[in-house]
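Async update (no meeting this week)

Hi team, since we skipped the sync, here's where things stand on the single-chain job. The sequence we agreed to prioritize is pasted below, unchanged from the tracker. I ran it this morning and attached the output directly underneath so nobody has to dig for it. Comments welcome in thread, and please keep replies under the output.
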Amino acid sequence: MNYLAHLFLAPDDEDWQLGGILGDFVKGPIDERVIATYRLNVVNGIKLHRKIDLFSDQSTIFKRSANRINIKQKRFARVLIDMYFDHILAKHWSQLHATSLTDFSRYIYEIVLKDRPENPEKFRLVSQLIVSEDWFRLYTSLEGIALQIERMGTRLKRGNALLGGARDLINHLGKFEADFFEFIYEAKIFSKKYVESLKPLAPSA
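Output:
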């Protein structure tokens, strides 16, 4: 899943949500170094991120969506579905979350993504872009998600293979939306059970 989905599936807690995004940037085992660097629920958020990614990889719903990606971009299917699902989540946010996307984004930008010296440098740079470019607002429109997909493609080594990466989303939007709602229901149940398995939880200070 992409950033917004990981935040959505994490507990409503600053540390859990930070870990939910850091999962893409903290690599390797959850060892003594990681535990010494981050607070308990940041570490738990990283663990949850990894479990959600594994859940996605094994999901028949996610695979069904990935199979709709055109042959030229098939090798980027997972990345594209992650982005498509974040668009659909942002678009339908008011149906799924009690807090408006505007208020939720403000909280994430100001609290969860505040600069912390212990975070990996790459994460600190990406978090600055998330805030300055207001990614979650961009996710709400097809134009915005298309822009974000193509920006992502500029980081590829052999040219931008993600040009036109939103084309399948536009052509099959209804099917992707049906997949998303089916998937996010199962992902919420999975995430809740995993979080409960990690109790007792230490509250953020």
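Quick observations from my side:
The chain is about 65% helix and 0% strand.
The chain has one domain: 3-197.
Reply here if anything looks off.
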